[in-house]
C-alpha cells in the first residue's frame, strides 16, 4: 500500500466543515456515525424542510444534535432567505451561530427556497462582515441562468458571482463549498485570506464516469473531469490553509436513490477520515500524487486544522485519532433501529482505512 | 403547437436504422412496437449474449424476428469479432446480411467482446469494401485509451480513428452510429459520400442534465451539452442526406434500470416517429429551430428516405403513414404477457405526436 507510512499515525480529531444531518429518524441514524469517521466537529447545513431560517430553529436543531452526540461540536448555520435581515444576523451571532448558507434557487436537495439574486442580501452581507460570520456559498448557477448552463458548467459559471461578492465584501469570510472544478480552485487561490474552500472526499475519488449509471455516486455539484479531480487532489495536499475537508456527506433514503428520478447526495460520514486516506492512495496509484505529497502535516492541515483555523474555533476536548491501515469494511447499508430508514454509504462493501480514538 | 402544419401529413413509412431487439421474452415485447412507432424497416444490432458473430446466428435471429412481425423488414448485422474473417464477410453478403457492427471493448451494453484494435480487421474491411457491406461504428474510445477519456470526451476522442478508417477505406460505407456531439457532426460532414451518421431521437431532446439523476435517460454515448444538441438538431433538418434516424432504442428490464449500478439504454421504439416531431417542436420552442426548418421534405429525408438510400434498399410494401398531432400518451411501462419482462419507455406518461398507417 502506497501510504503504509501512515499506519499508526496520530492526528488531532478531524473537523468536517460541511455535513447534512437531516431531521427525524435519519438524524438519529447518521449523527452517531460522525465520530466513527474520526470527526468531532462539524459545520451543519440548514437545508431541512422547512429550512433553518430562524435563530430559534437553529438552536433547537443544535440541541437535538447535541443530545444525540454530546462528544461532537455542532457549528450551526442559517439558510439565506428573504427573512434573514441584519437584525437576524446580530441575533444569530449573539446566539453562537457560525455561518449563513446560500443555496442558489433550485440547484440541489431542498434548494427551492434558495437565492434568486444576491443583491437583495448586500445589507445582510455587510452585517455579517461586521459580525464576522461566515458566508457559505453553494457555488453553482441554476439552469435558468442561461441556455448553456449545465450540471458540468454551473460551478465555473458561478465563479464571477463569487469573485464579485469577495470584491464587494473583502472582509467577509466566504467559503466556496464543495469545490469540484480546477477553475474553482484557481479562483479561490486568487482571493485574499478571508476566502476558503471546502473539498469533499468523494470528489477526490470521482469523475463524471463514476456517477454515470450509479445513483449512489450522484451528487450536486456533480463530479467532473479527470483534470478537475487532479486539481482537487493537488489543492488538498498543497499545504494551502484555505483548502479543507467538508464532506458534504448527504444521506438519502435508499428508496429515493433506487428511484426513477433520484436524489443528489453521497453519504460518506461513517468513514470520512479513512476515505480521505483511501483517495490519496488511489491518486498515488494513478500517478496524480506521490507518497511524498501526503505528509502528516498536509493531512493534519486538510482534515483537522485548516477548517478550525478559518472558523476560529478550537477542539476543547483536545482529542486525538490514530490511522489504521487494517481498517474497516464499509457497510452495505445502514438501517435505523426500527427499520424505517435505510442509507447506502459511498463505496459500500469496500475496505477503507480505519480510525481509532486515542 | 409549433408544428400544427404537420397534422395530417402523409409520409412514407419510416426506417429506423439502429435498433436493439434483444432476445427471448424481451424480443417478443419490443418487436410489436416497431410498427406502432411508424417504422417498417429496421437495422438490427448484434449485441446479444453471445453476440451474433456467425451468418447462421444472424439468419436464425432474422427468422425469429420476421415470425414475430412479418410486416417489418429486418436488416441484419454481425458483431465485429476475431472470428469474422473475409470469408465470413463473403458468406454474409451472399446471405443478405447488411452490415458489421463494431463495438469498442467495454464501452456499452454487451461490448465485452468488442474491438481492442482496428488494425487486425483491415483485411475484413477490405473485403467489406469489395462486397459493399456497411461498417457500423460505435464511435467511442474506451476509458482505458487514456486518463482523460470520459463518457463526455469518448466520442470526440474516437473521431481520428473514424477519419483514419475512412481515409484507408474510402469506398467502404461507414456509418458513425448515434452521433452525440457537434464534433462528430462536423467530422461526418468532412467525409465523402460513403460515410453517413445516425442520430437518435433521445439525443435530439437531451443534454447531460437530463440523465443526471434519471436512469431512464441514461445511455451510451451519453447526451452531452446544449451546443451538441443544437448541432444534432440542425443536422437532422439540414437536408444533408448523410444524416438519418437510428433510434438506438435499447430496452432494458425495469429492474436493471432501478438498480444500484444501472444499464445504459433509452427505449423509444413505440413512438419513434412521434418523438422526432416532438423533439423538433421542443427545439422550436427554445429557439434552436424555426417552424420553417421542419418541412415535409426534411422530415421525409431524415426519417424515411436518407437511411434507405444509404443502405440501397427500398420499401417493397410502399407503405405510408400519417402524422397526428392529437397523438398518444406514452405508456408508463410495457409488460410482457406473462409479466416476466417490464420496460420503461422514454418520456413515460407524456403526450406525443401519433402515427396512423394508411
From TrEMBL, chains A, B:
A GO biological process of this protein is:
'de novo' pyrimidine nucleobase biosynthetic process
What SUPFAM superfamilies has UniProt attached to this entry?
Answer: Metallo-dependent hydrolases
Kindly give the Gene3D superfamilies that the UniProt entry links to this protein. Metal-dependent hydrolases
PROSITE patterns reported in the protein's UniProt record: DIHYDROOROTASE_1, DIHYDROOROTASE_2
Keywords, comma-separated and alphabetical: Hydrolase, Metal-binding, Pyrimidine biosynthesis, Zinc
> What Enzyme Commission number(s) appear in the record?
3.5.2.3
Task: Provide a Gene Ontology MF annotation, just one.
Answer: dihydroorotase activity
Q: Which residues form the Amidohydrolase-related domain?
A: 11-255
Provide the top EC class.
hydrolase
| InterPro entries from the UniProt entry | Amidohydro-rel (IPR006680), DHOdimr (IPR004721), Dihydroorotase_CS (IPR002195), Metal_Hydrolase (IPR032466)
Q: Which family does it belong to?
A: Belongs to the metallo-dependent hydrolases superfamily. DHOase family. Class II DHOase subfamily.
Protein name, UniProt field: dihydroorotase
Q: Which organism is it from?
A: Extremus antarcticus
Amino acid at each position: 500500500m502506497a501510504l503504509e507510512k501512515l499506519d499508526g499515525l496520530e492526528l488531532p480529531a478531524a473537523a468536517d466543515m460541511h455535513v447534512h444531518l437531516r431531521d427525524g429518524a435519519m438524524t438519529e441514524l447518521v449523527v452517531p456515525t460522525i465520530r466513527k469517521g474520526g470527526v468531532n466537529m462539524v459545520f451543519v447545513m440548514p437545508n431541512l424542510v422547512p429550512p433553518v431560517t430562524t435563530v430559534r430553529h437553529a438552536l433547537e436543531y443544535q440541541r437535538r444534535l447535541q443530545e444525540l452526540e454530546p462528544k461532537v461540536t455542532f457549528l450551526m448555520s442559517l439558510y439565506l432567505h428573504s427573512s434573514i435581515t441584519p437584525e437576524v444576523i446580530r441575533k444569530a451571532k449573539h446566539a453562537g451561530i457560525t455561518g449563513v448558507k446560500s443555496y442558489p434557487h433550485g440547484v440541489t436537495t431542498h434548494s427551492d427556497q434558495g437565492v434568486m439574486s444576491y443583491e437583495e442580501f448586500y445589507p445582510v452581507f455587510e452585517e455579517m462582515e461586521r459580525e464576522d460570520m461566515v458566508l457559505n456559498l453553494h457555488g453553482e448557477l441554476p439552469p435558468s441562468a442561461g441556455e448553456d448552463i449545465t450540471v458540468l458548467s454551473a460551478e465555473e459559471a458561478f465563479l464571477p458571482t463569487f469573485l464579485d461578492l469577495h470584491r464587494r465584501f473583502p472582509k467577509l469570510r466566504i467559503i466556496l463549498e464543495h469545490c469540484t472544478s480546477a477553475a474553482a480552485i484557481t479562483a479561490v487561490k486568487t482571493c485574499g485570506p478571508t476566502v476558503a474552500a471546502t473539498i469533499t472526499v468523494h470528489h477526490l475519488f470521482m469523475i463524471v464516469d463514476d456517477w454515470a449509471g450509479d445513483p449512489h455516486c450522484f451528487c450536486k455539484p456533480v463530479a467532473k473531469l479527470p483534470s478537475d479531480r487532479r486539481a482537487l487532489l493537488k489543492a488538498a495536499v498543497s499545504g494551502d490553509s484555505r483548502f479543507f475537508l467538508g464532506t458534504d456527506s448527504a444521506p438519502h433514503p435508499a428508496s429515493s436513490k433506487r428511484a426513477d428520478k433520484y436524489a443528489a447526495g453521497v453519504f460518506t460520514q461513517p468513514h470520512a477520515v479513512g476515505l480521505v486516506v483511501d483517495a490519496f492512495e488511489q491518486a498515488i496509484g494513478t500517478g496524480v500524487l506521490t507518497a511524498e505529497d501526503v505528509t502528516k502535516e498536509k493531512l493534519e492541515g486538510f482534515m483537522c486544522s485548516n477548517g478550525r483555523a478559518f472558523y476560529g474555533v478550537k477542539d476543547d476536548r483536545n482529542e486525538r485519532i490514530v490511522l489504521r491501515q487494517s481498517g474497516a469494511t464499509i457497510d452495505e447499508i445502514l438501517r435505523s433501529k426500527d427499520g424505517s430508514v435505510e442509507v447506502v454509504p459511498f463505496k459500500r462493501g469496500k475496505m477503507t482505512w480505519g480510525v481509532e480514538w486515542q
